[in-house]
Every structure is written in C-alpha cells, then in structure tokens.
Please model this.
Amino acid sequence: MQPPHFSVTVWWVVAIAVTVFFLVFMVTLMPTPKGKRSVCVVPVAGAAYVVADAVAPGGSLDTSLPAYAVGLFAIPMMFVGHRKRVRWAALDGERNGEMPGNRKFGALMAVQVVVVVLTAYALGFWLIM
Model:
C-alpha cells in the first residue's frame, strides 16, 4: 500500500497544527512553570531538526516535516488518560530535585508508551517512503 503524497504546503499546515496541539496539551499537563517551559523546548528542537534536515545534502522537507509531525503528535498520545499521574510525577520530581522516573508510572502506561512509539515509528516510516 502506497502512502498518500501530500505537498510540502500541506505538511507545513499539519506541522503547525500539531505544534499547537502539542503545546496546548503538554503545557496544560505540566503543573509548574518550570515544567511548562521545558515542554516548550520540544517543538523548538523539532524545528531545528526540520531546518537541519532541509539544508543537509540529500535532505528534504518532504521527509522531515512528516517525521516532525508524527513524532510531535506521538508525545501527547503517550500521556492520554494519565493526566493525574503525570502531574503528580512532575510535581514530586521537581520537589525532590529529580526527574520523574518509570517507578511512578504503572504498567498500563508503559504499554501505552511502547504502543504509541512503535505506531508512530511505523507511521512515520510509511509516510516518508
């Protein structure tokens, strides 16, 4: 099955929409100003990747924009249904001066993260074929 081919303009619109979705979802998920600032760095890093890939020899916006959109969309999908747990882990980690680790998340969330990552990887690979 061939992936759909969208123009770079369409991918820009998708990337912008996904960025807005990511920021709205993740900023409201984080309970502290520090957490809110740190999640805002993710789209900036993704944009740096898109620019670097576009100017690199052999690079193209046809491949970097779909990868950016799928990757950025996958991050909030990992946390759907786990809002209280994620907020608690972020608060606890900030109070104790440590990163929230896996010990604060249950097995179902771990399975959800793995499924989302594998699905995003497969979808991204399919879209840039």
User: Anything to note?
Assistant: DSSP finds five helices and no strands in the chain. The mean pLDDT is 86.
